[in-house]
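[User]
If only I could read backbone structure tokens as easily as an amino acid sequence. I have put the entry right below:
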Amino acid sequence: MSPLLIICLILLFVSGAGLIVFILLHSGKGTGVSDMISSSFYGNQGTSIVEKNLDRITIVLAIVFFLTLVALMFVYPQGTIGY
């Protein structure tokens, strides 16, 4: 395995797991985990700050996930994976 492939696979798995976690942390209508945490620490003002940070982290992880998939398409073009 090449070092580029190993780095791409690690980034893919870490960003995928991070996306799952951070999407689940988003609150729907004040009933999510992030709302419970932010209301206990920051009161009413903290909710918007925590949600903005969750949005930013989720967007960054989604971009990393997408770019890693594109990089893997170039590392392993269709039909070149050997067993």
